[in-house]
């Protein structure tokens, strides 16, 4: 046994590294290797250095410190052999062979069980123990040659415990930096020479080994996940075609309870062969055939707890780390910034007593900077992308929460091809992550009722591509996704799927929060008690349960048959296979590959044998339903004297997924009476048809309970009497027989053999009369002497009435007296209705309806009147002089709370209703009454609901839940609703909202500073009332979003409201928006800096540009006339008469605005016509003449006749003189005078036809679509003869 402290370990490491392990490669040999090889006749090599160690039962204890007694780990070399050899040709061989090695965690050695943080002390151990001495557990072989370096590692039959805090502690312990003395040559900064043409070959072979992750490392029987595989890894950096290849054979993952792996193992990943390669394009290529992942609810919870336990495991390491003050931490960060290691900086500060300058000087002499210590090297393996190819990947979600363990949902990817490009952080040429997925996607859910899979998403072939890039002006990256498919996306949603979703969601949510409350609800419990309370073990699920209601002992056996096999199942009837009746049973034992055969067409059948009867044929119990089999007596053939019995198999769901198989007879007795009854089953006399005699049996059946008659008594006589009643009763006479029902009513007999019959009946015990009250108030009754009170909507079961006699029914109501009774004749088997007459104290009549059936009497009203107006209303029949019955003085001043029973008492009058406000109501009523006629499902009568045409405003915000009735106070005004938020200072009213239709919208509410606050409005019509619901607008996005990708801020708003208030979208920002005036036109106006604006109709989608008035091409300048008849340039105004001109056939350009409008067919007076002319007497070549209006003068034809040239100029009869703005190009603005002159020699901008832009003048029509001339064609059409 060897015990090393941390200081001793560093000493031995330094001895091995800097003494025995001195780098002798730098020492030049006295005789060159090449010359030595030439002088010798042979290539014989000899050993320079050799170490051979045989270790038998050697234990190496690593201890942090003897003083604190803090052990770390123990490495047991039970049987190992180490060989190190160095040869004369500078080659080296290292071989380590271990037949058995054990690594243990000794941190909690001698600690009490309560404080023990890890009970799994064997970190690395052998899985199987064998007496064979040749079994190798670990091998390491290293071969170093002049041109290559090869390392082979073999691990066999090993279990590795993933105790993360232990691994981190051991890593820090072993890989601690070893310091050397300053005078050693090894301490000098030396950069090794780059060796070329040296290949490295690493081979890792792991056989039948596993990695174990535990949920709670302080318990022995905790849940765990085991990853098991046989792996071959080859790393050849100089192989450009395939630098890395990995083959995972029989890779599997399963969950279990440690110590009971074989009994509790449940597969998560089925065994699979996986190939991983890195090709020459630096692409990680993953190839697999079929991958099946089974993930259950307990597995998800277990993985969640494992992730949550990682920070707790690392707390122990953090507590042991040295604690430094804030001042020392600042000094350490300053020294580490110079390139020194943190450990060296701490040591320097301790030696120099926290003097920063002295510590820095000490580091320069006694430590090596990180920049000098490290040699920059490029990574040998580089991965730029990942590519996955698989024939099929199946992910099955299992519901094992609570009392179920059945498949829930399966998602499959067929012919999958996945490509993902990894990001590369390069400032000059960054690579953003992008990828594609091509597969056939399908999804199924498991129908628990039918025990089979049903499709949710039918196979859908698709190609999905995505790309994530940084968008300009965006705070976060944007993910762009594109989906292409030629197939139809078919989704099947059934009621069973919706019910299953609701059930699973409720069970999972309840269990999750219950377990969370259990763990956090007991903060006072510590140590092992709290750990045990929070630990949950997976309980085994048994999918089938059996209930014996036959009244006789039975035994059963199970059988699984293939549906594709046409042969009938062969049942072994030996006594060894029969199972005595038990509550739960399985068809097969527990399987590691759970639910693997759920897609196979197999039938789970049950074979039952009741005592004294023969075995029945197999019954399939996979589907919910009712099935039956006939069982003859044992040892006899069927005969009329001894008929077979009918055995019923009732399969139903118990809980979430367990199927309960109830075995009973085909005869049921249901007690629908309000009291318990005693049932006596008496066998028939021996001289009857049935010669089999059984003893008499009695049963007590409670109300609303059902009794399955025992098999042996299905042909017995049935006698019934009340149990524990106020009187003593005898059994009924005559007896009840299911095969002797009067008139064969509801007989439903199923005959298997024509000679005898078998029962398939349900005998229901009902009261003689069931009196049901369908009125909204209580009534009193007197039925043949039996009296009582029935609440509204309830019923009374009356058993003291003889139906063979005449029955009289009298009904009483508060504030009414009965005028007649209902008489039911004796033995009445027909249904009829009767009218019951009532009178109130004012002699006003009310009629009720009584419906009489076989054993039921229903009392109802013709109409109910429900007043929901909030006003006292009084009703009467139209044409009647008195109000309806039941209305008194209180109805004149207050609204009735209970519904008013109403009937049309006068059959000759109109069957309409009138209403008025109570006489003692002082309210001025402006509302409109709306009557709604409906028929409730429960009550076979009509209901009249009286509403006023009003609204209910409901405010559902984060802090408020308010309801308020509302109606318009003025009907002559426009009915628009405006809202304001009181919690916002200086909040303004919103725009008008129409609330007379079902609608949903966002409301834009602003404050005095123009800030926007959104509310969500929902208008719903229920009955005759509109419900206006205001909610927070966080759940839905606003209808409009303005994305400003320009470099300037944009002001925007609704065109009719922008002059009042507007919103602003800054450069490279997105601003949500909703209409300020929802009832007005949806036109938005944008205003750019400098007053550039344009309007857009949001009903039309597309792109448009904002016209800049400062741009010469977007000003739309036209010729306009001032009051002094001078012509200037002005912006185009549609419909402005001063900008309208007419060109005649003589070439004159007449001004329309200077003469009154006239009909085109009427001639104009010459004195009212003015045309375009120049101000000067004649044009001058070196000057410009202003344009004005003059009367037509034949002497000025050279300046009053104009033409439009092909280039796009407006010219007069003088050659090379055209119309243009004063000052040329710089005069293209509104208000500039229009002149006639020679073109300027300087040109700033040309049109498409090659003329200066200031000289381009064209004609535009007042009405678009008009042309300069109309062409007409006249031709003859040959008439066609009609048949």
Name the shape in a single word.
flat
Strand order of the largest sheet: 4-5-8-9-7-6
Count, helices? 12
User: Averaging pLDDT over every residue, what do you get?
Assistant: 79
Helix content: 10-25%
Q: What is the distance, rounded to the nearest whole angstrom, between the alpha carbons of the first and last residues?
A: 122 Å
Q: How much of the sequence is in beta strands?
A: 35-45%
Q: Would you tell me the structural class of the helices and strands?
A: mainly beta
* Cα radius of gyration in angstroms: 50 Å
Q: List segments where confidence is low: pLDDT < 50 over at least 5 consecutive residues.
A: 33-42, 186-195, 371-378, 522-535, 743-755, 1265-1283
Strand tally is 72
The description of the largest β-sheet is: 6 strands, mixed, barrel
InterPro entries: Ricin_B-like_lectins, UBA, UBA-like_sf, VP13D_UBA, VPS13, VPS13-like_M, VPS13_VAB
Protein name: UBA domain-containing protein
Domain UBA: 321-366
Organism: Molorchus minor
Please characterize this protein's 3D structure.
The structure is a single chain. The strands form 17 sheets. A six-stranded mixed beta barrel has the order 4-5-8-9-7-6. The protein is flat, with a radius of gyration of 50 Å. The protein is built from twelve helices and 72 strands. The chain is mainly beta and about 1300 residues long. Helix 3 runs parallel beside helix 5, helix 6 crosses helix 7 and helix 7 packs across helix 8. A hairpin with a 3-residue loop joins strand 26 and strand 27. It holds the Pfam family VPS13_M. It comes from Molorchus minor. This is UBA domain-containing protein.
């Amino acid at each position: 046994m060897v015990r090393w402290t941390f200081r001793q370990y560093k000493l031995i490491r330094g001895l091995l590294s800097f003494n025995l392990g001195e780098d002798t490669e730098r020492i030049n040999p006295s005789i060159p290797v090449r010359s030595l090889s030439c002088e010798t006749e042979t290539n014989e090599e000899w050993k320079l250095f050799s170490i051979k160690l045989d270790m038998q039962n050697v234990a190496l204890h690593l201890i942090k410190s003897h003083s604190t007694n803090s052990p770390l780990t123990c490495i047991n070399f039970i049987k190992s052999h180490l060989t190190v050899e160095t040869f004369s040709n500078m080659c080296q061989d290292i071989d380590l062979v271990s037949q058995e090695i054990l690594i243990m965690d000794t941190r909690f050695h001698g600690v009490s069980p309560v404080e023990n943080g890890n009970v799994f002390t064997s970190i690395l151990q052998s899985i199987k123990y064998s007496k064979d001495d040749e079994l190798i557990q670990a091998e390491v072989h290293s071969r170093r040659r002049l041109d290559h370096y090869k390392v082979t590692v073999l691990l066999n039959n090993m279990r590795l415990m993933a105790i993360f805090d232990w691994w981190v502690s051991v890593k820090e312990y072993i890989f601690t930096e070893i310091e050397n003395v300053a005078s050693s040559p090894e301490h000098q900064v030396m950069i090794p020479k780059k060796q070329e043409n040296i290949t490295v070959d690493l081979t890792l072979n792991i056989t039948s080994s596993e990695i174990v992750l535990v949920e709670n490392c302080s318990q022995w029987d905790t849940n765990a996940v085991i990853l098991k595989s046989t792996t071959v890894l080859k790393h050849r950096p100089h192989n450009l075609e395939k630098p890395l290849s990995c083959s995972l054979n029989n890779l599997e993952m399963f969950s279990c309870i440690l110590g009971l792996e074989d009994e509790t193992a449940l597969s998560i990943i089925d065994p699979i062969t996986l190939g991983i390669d890195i090709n020459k394009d630096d692409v990680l290529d993953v190839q697999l055939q079929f991958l099946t992942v089974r993930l259950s609810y307990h597995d998800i919870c277990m993985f969640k707890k494992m992730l949550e336990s990682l920070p707790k495991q690392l707390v122990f390491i953090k507590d042991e780390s040295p604690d430094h003050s804030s001042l020392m931490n600042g000094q350490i960060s300053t020294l580490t910034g110079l390139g020194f290691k943190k450990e060296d900086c701490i040591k320097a500060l301790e030696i120099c007593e926290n003097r920063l300058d002295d510590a820095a000087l000490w580091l320069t002499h006694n430590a090596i900077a990180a920049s000098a210590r490290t040699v920059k090297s490029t990574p040998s393996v580089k991965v730029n992308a990942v590519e996955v190819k698989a024939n099929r990947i199946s992910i099955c979600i299992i519901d094992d929460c609570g009392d179920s363990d059945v498949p829930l949902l399966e998602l499959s990817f067929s012919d999958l091809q996945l490509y993902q490009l990894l990001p590369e952080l390069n400032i000059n040429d960054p690579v953003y992550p992008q990828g594609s997925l091509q597969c056939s996607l399908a999804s199924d859910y498991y129908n628990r009722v039918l025990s089979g899979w049903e499709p949710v998403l039918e196979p859908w072939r698709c190609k999905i591509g995505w790309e994530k890039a940084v968008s300009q002006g965006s705070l976060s990256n944007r993910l762009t996704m594109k989906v292409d498919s030629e197939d139809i996306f078919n989704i099947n949603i059934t009621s069973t799927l919706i019910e299953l979703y609701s059930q699973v969601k409720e069970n999972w949510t309840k269990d999750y929060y219950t377990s969370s409350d259990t763990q956090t609800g007991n903060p006072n419990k510590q140590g092992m008690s709290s750990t045990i309370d929070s630990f949950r073990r997976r309980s085994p699920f048994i999918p089938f349960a059996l209930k014996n209601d036959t009244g006789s002992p039975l035994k059963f056996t199970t059988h699984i048959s293939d549906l594709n096999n046409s042969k009938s199942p062969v049942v072994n009837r030996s006594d060894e296979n029969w199972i005595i009746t038990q509550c739960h049973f399985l068809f097969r034992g527990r399987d590691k590959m759970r639910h693997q055969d759920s897609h196979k067409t197999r039938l789970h059948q049950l074979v039952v044998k009741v005592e004294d009867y023969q075995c029945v044929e197999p019954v399939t119990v996979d589907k919910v339903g009712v099935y039956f089999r006939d069982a003859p007596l044992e040892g006899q053939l069927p005969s009329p004297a001894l008929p077979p019995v009918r055995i019923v198999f009732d399969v139903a769901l118990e809980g979430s997924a367990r199927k309960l198989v109830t075995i009973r007879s085909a005869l049921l007795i249901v007690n629908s009476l309000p009291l318990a009854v005693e049932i006596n089953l008496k066998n028939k006399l021996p001289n009857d048809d049935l010669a089999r005699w059984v003893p008499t049996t009695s049963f007590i059946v409670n109300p609303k309970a059902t009794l399955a008659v025992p098999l042996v008594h299905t042909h017995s006589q049935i006698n019934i009497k009340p149990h524990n009643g106020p009187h003593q009763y005898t059994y009924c006479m005559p007896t009840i027989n299911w095969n002797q029902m009067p008139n064969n009513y509801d007989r439903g007999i199923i005959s298997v053999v024509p000679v005898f019959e078998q029962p398939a009946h349900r005998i229901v015990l009902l009261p003689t009369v069931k009196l049901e009250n369908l009125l909204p108030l209580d009534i009193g009754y007197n039925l043949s002497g039996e009296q009582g009170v029935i609440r509204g909507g309830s019923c009374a079961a009356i058993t003291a009435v003889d139906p063979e006699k005449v029955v009289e029914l009298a009904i009483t109501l508060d504030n009414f007296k009965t005028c007649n009774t209902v008489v039911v004749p004796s033995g009445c088997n027909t249904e009829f209705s009767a009218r019951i007459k009532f009178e109130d104290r004012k002699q006003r009549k009310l009629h009720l309806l009584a419906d009489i059936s076989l054993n039921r009497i229903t009392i109802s009203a013709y109409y109910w009147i429900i007043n929901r107006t909030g006003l006292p209303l009084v009703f009467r029949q139209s044409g009647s002089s008195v109000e309806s019955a039941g209305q008194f003085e209180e109805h004149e001043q207050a609204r009735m709370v209970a519904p008013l029973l109403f009937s049309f008492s006068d059959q000759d009058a109109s069957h309409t209703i009138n209403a008025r406000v109570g006489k003692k109501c002082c309210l001025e009523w402006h509302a409109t009454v709306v009557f709604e006629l409906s028929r409730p499902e429960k009550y076979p009568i009509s209901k009249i609901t009286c509403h006023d045409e009003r609204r209910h405003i409901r405010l559902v915000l984060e802090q408020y839940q308010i309801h308020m009735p509302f109606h318009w106070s003025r009907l002559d005004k426009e009915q628009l609703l405006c809202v304001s938020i009181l919690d916002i200072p200086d909040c303004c009213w919103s725009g008008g909202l129409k609330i007379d239709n079902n609608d949903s919208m966002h409301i834009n509410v602003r404050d005095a500073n123009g800030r926007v606050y959104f509310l969500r409005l929902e208008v719903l019509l229920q009955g005759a009332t509109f419900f206006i619901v205001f909610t927070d607008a966080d759940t839905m996005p606003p209808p409009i979003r303005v994305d400003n990708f320009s470099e300037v801020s944009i002001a925007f708003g609704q065109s009719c409201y922008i002059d009042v208030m507007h919103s602003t979208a800054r450069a490279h920002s997105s601003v949500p928006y909703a209409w300020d005036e929802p009832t007005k036109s949806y036109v938005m106006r944008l205003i750019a800096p400098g007053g550039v604006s344009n309007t857009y109709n949001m009903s039309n989608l597309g792109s448009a540009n904002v016209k800049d008035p400062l741009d010469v091409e977007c000003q739309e300048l036209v010729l306009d006339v001032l009051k002094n008849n001078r012509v200037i340039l002005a912006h185009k105004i549609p419909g402005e008469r001063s900008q309208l001109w007419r060109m005649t056939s003589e070439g004159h350009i007449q001004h329309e605005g200077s003469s009154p409008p006239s009909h085109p067919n009427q001639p104009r007076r010459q004195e009212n016509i003015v045309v375009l002319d120049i101000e000067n007497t004649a044009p001058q070549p070196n000057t410009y003449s202003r344009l004005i209006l003059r009367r037509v003068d034949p002497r000025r034809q050279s300046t009053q006749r104009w033409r439009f040239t092909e280039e796009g100029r407006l010219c007069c009869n003088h050659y090379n003189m055209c119309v243009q703005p004063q000052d040329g190009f710089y005069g293209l603005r509104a208000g500039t005078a229009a002149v006639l002159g020679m073109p300027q020699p300087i040109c700033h901008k040309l049109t498409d036809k090659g003329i200066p832009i200031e000289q381009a003048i064209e004609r535009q029509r007042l009405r678009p679509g008009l042309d300069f001339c109309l062409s007409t064609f006249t031709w003859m059409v040959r008439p066609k003869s009609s048949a």
